[in-house]
Amino acid sequence: MTDRPRLDERAVAGRLELLEEMLNELETTSGPTAELALDAVATLAEVYGEALARVMDRAAAYPGFGSAAAGDVLLAHLFALHGVPTGQPPASDPGTAFIPLDTLARRPATSRAAP
Questions:
Q1: Could you read off the pLDDT of 73-109 as tens digits, one per residue?
Q2: Phi, psi of 61 (to 5 degrees)
Q3: Which of 15, 16, 70, 100 fits a disulfide with 88 by CB distance 3.0 to 4.6 angstroms?
Q4: Residue 52 and residue 84 in contact, taking contact as beta carbons nearer than 8 Å
């Protein structure tokens, strides 16, 4: 564990609202830098989604872990956002608890050729 302070539900919701505002601003900004930033966010979300899926794949070996993870509002939101099945109903409706579920998924990451 780290010594950094943890975010409570209100702080998480505030950060996600800020993220939504920043992504909306980027989407209305033209130019290669804005496009690159949006592609970077979409790619990062895709990688984190894969990481969450791998965690849940391994959760089967630890009875109760999947239920506990799916019962956390933020994790339930992320599982829904990334389409990761948990086998559990979410703790609350993640679509209304935080940012809309399509926020990070609306821009598919483009493939870039390696230099």
A1: 888 888 887 888 877 665 555 444 455 545 555 554 4
A2: -75, -10
A3: 70
A4: yes
Query: How far is it, in rounded angstroms, from Cα 77 to Cα 5?
Result: 21
Cα–Cα distance measured from residue 95 to residue 104, given in angstroms and rounded to the nearest whole number: 13
Q: Are 32 and 110 in contact (CB under 8 A)?
A: no
Answer yes or no: pTM beyond 0.85.
no
Whether the CB-CB separation of 16 and 99 falls below 8 Å is answered with yes
Over the chain, what HEC string results?
CCCCCCCCHHHHHHHHHHHHHHHHHHHCCCCHHHHHHHHHHHHHHHHHHHHHHHHHHHHCCCCCHHHHHHCCHHHHHHHHHHCCCCCCCCCCCHHHHCCCCCCCCCCCCCCCCCC
What whole-number distance in Å separates Cα of residue 85 and Cα of residue 52? Answer: 10
